[in-house]
Design brief:
Blueprint: H1 2-51, E1 62-70, E2 81-86, E3 92-96, E4 102-108, E5 112-118, E6 126-130, E7 136-138, E8 141-143, E9 156-164, E10 174-178, E11 185-190, E12 196-201, E13 205-211, E14 218-223, E15 233-234, E16 237-239, H2 242-248
Parallel strand pairs: 1-7, 1-8, 9-15, 9-16
Antiparallel strand pairs: 1-4, 2-3, 2-5, 5-6, 9-12, 10-11, 10-13, 13-14
Length: 249
């Protein structure tokens, strides 16, 4: 009986040992599977980080905006090609002026650039610009008129009269047309004995000054729609006598 009991005990122990080994192997397999899952997830995470594009917005980047216009003419120019190329040739940007003549560059890496323009019928413009961190630069570009056939476009006439407050004509008064963009003088004239003047001009935006020693300076801003002037434009001025105004006060 004792031998039978001992044999049964040994048999039970063998069974228990096999069960334990099986459980350990099972746990080992589950552990390895779990570790493989964790490793796979980690690798996917690392690969995903490399696939995400870098943020190109740099808080130190600069910007540039302004208008393109006909030099000394006062007329804005659309569809002008504008390029910015760094002096080290590592960075280049391109844009075009819109219908109002305005252009815009953003995300410019701060450094020195050569600005160049191109437009059929106009002389190519070039200027060196330097940008600092976070600089928002405003820069108007005045482009000289060239030609496609060797000739310049025909100028148009601005005319009018200059008179005193009494209504009398004011002769030998000076009338000046200035470009509003670069403050360059586009044309000047003196009034005749009847106080009349005639000026040649091109464009659609002007600042006109009328003055004579002993009289107040009068100014008029003119903006004409429809591009280049296609008809005569009249601008009349009345200049007050400075002494008369002083006495009136």
């Amino acid at each position: 009986m004792r031998q039978i009991a001992l044999d049964e005990l040994i048999s039970d122990m063998d069974i228990a040992e096999r069960v334990i080994v099986q459980n350990v192997n099972c746990l080992s397999v589950k552990w390895r599977m779990q570790m493989n899952r964790l490793l796979t997830c980690f690798l996917i995470f690392v690969v995903t980080l490399h696939l995400i594009p870098e943020n190109t917005d740099n808080p130190t980047d600069a910007s540039l905006t302004g208008y393109t216009y006909a030099y000394r003419q006062g007329d804005t120019l659309s569809h002008v090609e504008i390029r910015l190329k760094s002096t080290d040739s590592q960075n280049e940007y391109k844009t075009y002026s819109d219908e109002t003549g305005r252009y815009y560059f953003s995300n410019i890496i701060p450094k020195e650039y050569a600005l160049k323009t191109a437009l059929s019928g106009f002389v190519n413009y070039q200027q060196t610009l330097r940008f600092t961190n976070k600089e928002n630069k405003f820069f108007n570009i005045g482009i000289k008129i060239g030609s496609l056939d060797g000739s310049l476009p025909e100028p148009y006439m601005i005319h009018g009269t200059v008179s005193q407050a009494s209504g009398a004509a004011l002769s030998e008064a000076t009338v000046v047309i200035i470009s509003p963009f670069d403050q360059e003088i586009a044309s000047t004239a003196l009034t005749d004995k009847q106080g009349k003047y005639y000026l040649k001009a091109m464009g659609n935006r002007f600042i006109i000054y009328a003055y004579k020693p002993g009289f107040e300076v009068m100014t008029e801003r003119i903006t004409l729609k429809g591009g280049w002037l296609k008809k005569w434009h009249q601008a009349n001025f009345i200049l007050n006598d400075i002494e008369y105004k002083s006495e009136k006060k």
